[in-house]
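Please produce the structure of this protein holding 1-O-phosphono-beta-D-fructopyranose.
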Amino acid sequence: VFDCLRGRVDAAKGTITMAGVQANIEMLKNAPRILIIACGTSWHAGLLAEYIFEELCRTPVEVEYASEFRYRNPIVNKGDVIIAISQSGETADTLVAIEKAKEQGALIFGIVNVVGSSIARVSQAGAYTHAGPEIGVASTKAFTAQLAVLTIIALQLGYEKGTLDNKRFLHLLNELQDIPEKIPAALNQAEHVKQLAYKYKDARDFLYLGRGYNFPIALEGALKLKEISYIHAEGYPAAEMKHGPIALVDETLPVVFIATKDSYHEKIISNIQEIKARKGKVIAVITEGDDVITQMADDVIVVPQADELVAPMLSVIPMQLLAYYIGVAKGLDVDKPRNLAKSVTV
Ligand code: F1P
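Below is the modeled complex.
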């Protein structure tokens, strides 16, 4: 399994470390429970990992902000595996949360980008993302690499646990392998996204909605907009809209739907109708060839077709571009947003 994964993934750009996954697969296999702790963008990767792990591996997973975990009295059992995710490897909240879980007998699997960083050193096992240095403060390519590593872990673990059959394993492996070839097509939307940025840059608030694997991407889209463009944005599961956020919708509110084709497609179409009925402006990230949503939305951003489990690696790209271009359109320093540090060490 490892050779197969290594061969495929390394051939597809060589940015992913497989050794950490292979060496520690037994530890993950024996885990009665996996706890994922992280902050910010890394936490969003963790949330998506919860969905993927529970689907493919059937291991119970909990995801928590390290900034909460470190201060409360969480239940950690001996043998629980903590997956700690961090781009910088220096985030103080995550480091302290790791130490706390370690004291209670948990095993630490670190997923970090910076080699030799503090979180890498306190982890007993792990995998580097090797995404290269993030030039700006806000995490972007590290997020994609985190998702790739987490998906690889889930594939290998699911295969070895027997919860993922051979056919689906190979299908998902192929889908993952194809992602690097599809990323340029998503990036090619940049000019179009730039035009949308100028159209919507003066909005006071944004709402981001998605279901299933696309829900964490809605959260990440909203976070990027807050971080880089200083616009208030909320990410929500689209199905939660009726439980409160729908009251916000009027003709001034842009609503970004992460609406690529997946098992929730009919339901997300209904959600778009609900927003349109209240005169909200719909910007939808869609799979190429989706004429239904193209007819309904005010604007669409097209990404290539991919299995719903790996599609977030594509749909996050226009979200990052939108935040970037709105920041540029507003004359902001997108690489060094105010009040933010590259690694939050306090
Ligand atoms: C976590 C994080 C980033 C965010 C910003 C502040 O960092 O919240 O996601 O973009 O840079 O820190 P890390 O633990 O992933 O390095």
